[in-house]
């Protein structure tokens, strides 16, 4: 980390400033509608019931933030891979 902060990032930043490019820091996340069956609440003395439709869904997201606060994001239904990113 010391080498990155002290050597690599400053060199990269100089290149960016010379070319007018923007450095983005990215992260990805996946969200799924699954829940833990059997973990619910009810009034004392009553058995808890859970309505189960079986309809599950998921979504993936990738977000990028620049050092100046610019933000980009994309949501993807289905698998996220290099082909999805390069074709968007």
How would the blueprint of this fold be written?
Layout: H1 2-19, E1 24-32, E2 58-66, E3 71-76, H2 82-86
Antiparallel strand pairs: 1-2, 2-3
Task: Please describe what this structure looks like.
This protein is an alpha+beta fold and 88 residues long. The chain has a domain at 23-36 and 54-88: Pantoate--beta-alanine Ligase, Chain: A,domain 2. The chain is 26% helix and 27% strand. It has 2 helices and 3 strands, in the order αβββα. Strands 1-2-3 form a 3-stranded antiparallel β-sheet, with no helix packed on it. A hairpin with a 4-residue loop joins strand 2 (58-66) and strand 3 (71-76).
Structural class: alpha+beta
Integer-rounded radius of gyration: 22 Å
Per DSSP, what share of the residues sits in E-state strands of 2 or more residues?
25-35%
Arithmetic mean pLDDT: 84
So what's the CATH class of the domain at 23-36 and 54-88?
Alpha Beta
Low-confidence stretches: none
Tell me, what's the shape?
A: elongated
- The topology string of helices and strands comes to HEEEH
């Amino acid at each position: 980390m010391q080498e990155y902060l002290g050597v690599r990032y400053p060199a990269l930043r100089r290149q960016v400033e010379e070319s007018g490019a923007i450095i983005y820091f990215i992260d990805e996340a996946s969200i799924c509608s699954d829940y833990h069956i059997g973990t619910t609440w009810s009034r004392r003395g009553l058995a808890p019931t859970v309505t189960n439709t079986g309809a599950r869904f998921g979504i993936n997201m990738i977000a990028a933030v620049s050092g100046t606060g610019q933000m980009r994001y994309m949501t993807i239904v289905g698998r996220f891979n290099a082909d999805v990113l390069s074709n968007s």
